[in-house]
């Protein structure tokens, strides 16, 4: 087994604590330090994990507190979004690989500077879009090819700790990233709106995104809901996937030609199988599953109808293996770091740092890709932020129209 990579965690709040505990448990990592301006919080976590604590990252790099312990080669940055650029640039300029929590930065120009610094330093810059490692998403990933319609609902109770960003950067950006990861087309138009509920900014937002190839994505996010919901649905030609990212399960429906290849013009759809309209005034929870609208007998009749048309319908559950998404994300980041270091060492004397991140999220040395990340690269994080800013513009305009006197 390759040597463990020395890592540090900057920011020991809610997310940073998870990072630190998982690094301490991962055989691929050696947790060598924690950094936080809150000395008490950092001390508690440091005592729990048995690692030194520092009030600044510069102090960690120059400390002589322990003899023989390695300095970090990689870091997780889990500080408030407004500080991401300063902290990440500091680390990259000192030759460290960086995983920064989402969103990558508080502005697109800041994200661009971070990516440029990573390229210049030849270091890995990854972004913590952890939903890419959701067990349900990973299980269905290979089947989610070029969806034509995406629908997502991400709802959460109000949490005061996330108020440094609005609901788009806090929640919706997860689904923006997943959509961009799957749709092989550029964004053509964005229509978005939002409303304030408990804060002055948007606490609920909805966005309709149209891509140049005709794909549509309808995304809704709320941070003032009673219950947590993280559901996303993908519709493609002859296929449908519904994933519950919170529960970690999903279902698929596949429609295909029968093996004979024969096609018989189908009769009209039986009237009994046609969907009944909802009575006027019916309340509908768009995020909740609807009860089956067909009886067993009607379901059999529908299958016969499809078979007559030379089509077959396959329904089944997505085979999901229970995993820790953040653990997988950190392990993937460490694999990229190890590959980058190996590539730099193999390049020969005087060429340290030539290994860099490819735009596709791979670590490359010359023409040879060593590791293609499943997670989000710095470039991926910036794409998600660019789209999020378009959504936020629409949300801002809708908020302005809601203000008295507008």
Automatic annotation (TrEMBL):
GFO/IDH/MocA-like oxidoreductase domain: residues covered: 165-236
Pfam families associated with the record: GFO_IDH_MocA, GFO_IDH_MocA_C3
Annotated stretches, region: Disordered: 342-379
Domain of life: Bacteria
Residue ranges the record marks as coiled coil: none
Domain Gfo/Idh/MocA-like oxidoreductase N-terminal: 7-129
Gene Ontology MF term list: nucleotide binding
Listed Gly residues bias regions: 347-361
Identification of the protein by name: Gfo/Idh/MocA family oxidoreductase
Organism per entry: Eiseniibacteriota bacterium
């Amino acid at each position: 087994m390759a040597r463990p990579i020395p890592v540090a965690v900057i920011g020991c709040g809610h997310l940073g604590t998870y990072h630190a505990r998982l690094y301490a448990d991962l055989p691929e990592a050696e947790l060598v330090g924690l950094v936080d301006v809150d000395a008490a919080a950092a001390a508690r976590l440091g005592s729990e994990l048995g690692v030194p604590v520092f009030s600044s990252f510069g102090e960690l790099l120059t400390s002589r507190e322990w003899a023989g312990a390695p300095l970090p080669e990689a870091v997780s940055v889990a500080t408030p979004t407004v500080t991401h650029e300063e902290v990440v640039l500091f680390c990259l300029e000192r030759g460290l690989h960086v995983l920064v929590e989402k969103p990558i930065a508080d502005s697109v120009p800041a994200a661009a500077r971070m990516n440029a610094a990573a390229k210049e330093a030849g270091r890995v810059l990854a972004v913590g879009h952890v939903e890419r490692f959701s067990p349900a998403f990973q299980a269905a990933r290979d089947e989610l090819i070029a969806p034509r319609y995406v629908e997502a609902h991400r709802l959460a109770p109000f949490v005061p700790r996330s108020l440094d960003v609005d609901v788009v950067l806090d929640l919706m950006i997860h689904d923006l990233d997943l959509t961009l990861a799957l749709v092989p087309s550029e964004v053509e138009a964005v229509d978005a709106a939002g409303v304030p509920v408990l804060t002055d900014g948007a606490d609920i937002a909805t966005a309709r995104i149209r891509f140049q190839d005709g794909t549509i994505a309808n995304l809704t996010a709320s941070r003032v809901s009673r219950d947590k919901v993280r559901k996303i649905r993908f519709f493609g030609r002859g296929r449908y996937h519904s994933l519950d990212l919170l529960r970690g399960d999903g279902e698929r429906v596949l429609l295909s030609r029968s093996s004979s290849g024969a096609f018989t013009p189908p009769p009209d759809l039986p009237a009994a199988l046609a969907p009944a309209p909802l009575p006027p005034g019916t309340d509908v929870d768009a995020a909740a599953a609807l009860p089956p609208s067909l009886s067993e007998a009607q379901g059999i009749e529908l299958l016969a109808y499809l078979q007559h048309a030379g089509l077959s319908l396959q329904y089944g559950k997505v085979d999901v293996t229970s995993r820790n998404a953040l653990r997988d994300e950190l392990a993937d980041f460490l694999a990229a770091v190890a590959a980058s270091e190996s590539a730099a060492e193999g390049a020969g004397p005087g060429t340290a740092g030539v290994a860099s991140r490819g735009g596709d999220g791979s670590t490359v040395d010359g023409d040879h890709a060593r590791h293609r990340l499943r997670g989000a690269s710095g470039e991926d994080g910036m794409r998600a932020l660019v789209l999020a800013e378009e959504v936020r513009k629409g949300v801002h305009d809708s908020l302005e129209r809601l203000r008295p006197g507008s």
